[in-house]
Amino acid sequence: MIRFICFALLFLVTACEMPAADPAREAQADQAYGLVATGNEKGLAAIATESLEANLTSDLLQQMKTFGAEEKPVSAKTVQWQSSFTPQTSAYRIVREYSYPEKVVQFDTLMVRGPQGAWQVEALHINSFTASQIALGRFTIMNKSLLHYFVLVALVVTPIVCLFTVGFAAFRRRWGWMIGCLFGVGLFSFNWATGATQFQALQFALLGAGFFKGPLITDAWVMSFALPLPAILFWVLGKWRPKPARKPKKPAAALLVE
């Protein structure tokens, strides 16, 4: 029993929380967004690099302004960020999302810093999404097709089959089968919003199922599951039965010495 618990803990998959973004960079991105939303060209030029300042025309800023809103957003959050640091240059890219009653604005800011210098804005990208566009990224089970419900059931059942079989294989001390049953074979992917499907035969999935969603609010949920073929074979081939007892070795015949 103790061995079984150790194996169960060893293969338990847990979700790890991503580290939080730098609050100072979030504040600078919010500052840049506020300057774009109000069309403050001078203020934006003061925190921008020379290359951005040279390309930032009044017409371009006015065009970007139409995607934002001057009023305070209902909520703001970071949906994606990444950083890189070298002895010469540091870079920090962050995507902030601002929610308003009638739309959601996503603001992508790239900031750079030279040796012993201050952080400056190198590049900007802004976009806004309407309620109908945002609906594409929401997960709902209402008014869906039979295929949607089949995928949802497979997403739940497949990991259960894998985990149960892994536990039983460990109980029977079938170590090779225990490892093999952790995976599903042949990956079927399903776009929850559009219903688009994709199948990859030469793919393996841990615990036979998974799901993900991109950073954009309009990115649809993509569900994927694989056939738990090793687990099925474990039961079909009778590997769940106890191993046959080993026959005792016959003692070597004693040598007669005259």
Description:
The protein is elongated. It is built from nine helices and eight strands. It is of the alpha+beta class and 258 residues long. The relative contact order is 0.11. A hairpin with a 5-residue loop joins β5 (183-191) and β6.
Distance between the termini: 54 Å
Along the chain, the helix and strand elements come as: HHHHHEEEEHHHEEEEH
Strand adjacency order, main sheet: 1-2-3-4
Helix content: 25-40%
What value does the average pLDDT take?
A: 82
The main β sheet shows up as: 4 strands, antiparallel
User: Which structural category fits the helices and strands?
Assistant: alpha+beta
Beta-strand percentage range: 25-35%
By oligomeric state, this entry counts as: single chain
Shape by Cα distribution? elongated
Count every beta strand, where a strand is a DSSP E run of 2 or more residues. Answer: 8
Put simply, the count of helices is 9
Gyration radius, to the nearest Å? Answer: 29 Å
Low-confidence stretches: 1-16
Write the layout of secondary structure elements.
Blueprint: H1 2-10, H2 23-38, H3 41-47, H4 50-55, H5 58-65, E1 75-85, E2 90-99, E3 104-113, E4 120-129, H6 131-134, H7 146-171, H8 175-180, E5 183-191, E6 197-206, E7 209-213, E8 221-227, H9 229-236
Antiparallel strand pairs: 1-2, 2-3, 3-4, 5-6, 5-8, 7-8
